Amino acid sequence: MLLDAASLYYRAYFGVPESVRAPDGTPVNAVRGLLDFIARLVRDHRPGDLVACMDNDWRPHWRVELIPSYKAHRVVEESAEGPDTEETPDTLSPQVPVIEEVLDAIGIARVGADGYEADDVIGTLARRVGGPVDVVTGDRDLFQLVDDARGVRVLYPVKGMGDPMVVDEAALREKYGVASGAAYADLALLRGDPSDGLPGVAGVGEKTAARLLESYGDLDGVLAAVGDPASGMTPAQRRRLEAAREYLAVAPKVVRVAGDVALPEFDPALPAEPLHAQKLEELAERWGLGGSLRRLLDALAG
Question: Are 200 and 191 in contact (CB under 8 A)?
Fold first, then answer.
């Protein structure tokens, strides 16, 4: 089980009232919400291995060089030497180090790679493992990893931190009209995604993108059809795709997650008991983690 940590603690932050606070009054709604969600995942799915995948760089410069608008609307301050500063709610930012400390004390593996997003870490680990793999995320970008043959599916929380929807190839066909995770990636780059600053192809929405992929197989097939008079593509579609060739030449590298990231050594095994019990006890008292932590520890022990 691979957790898209940032996506999930954002969900927890907005899904749990900010009135949930530590003894000193500091909000811990994201911390406690995430612990409760992980407890439910462990209890319901009993993974043997579990990894919290981290955003060491939420907006890698190599992606920005290809598409400068990539996540640009979320930038508070740019940095030439490291990750740009992302716009984050004032009361969420201080909770992230607490989440990291608590996961480390429990013994849940936390893995990131400099210059890469959590998506790339997840893509790399999903490729390494023979399967099955559950990817837990609130980000549709990772639907591209769905692969029935390899047992890779996505658990996608629909409302807040509620029970997640299982996304497999049947779900992709029903919802988006594409037959695989790889086809979803092609659909996403054709359609674009304002939340990530991806322009897409002007005039090509989700349904049109799905029809193009159904007709021509994949992005390469769509581009080949642009130059083939016998392909049956409409003149308007040809014009739109031709005008977007520069974008379409670089979009695949930006949209598709990396699958070959060098990662540090780590132990993915789900711990039955806390790795650092004394440290965890101190954190629980300081931050008032109460029942949320107890429920997770009970799930791990069970």
Answer: yes
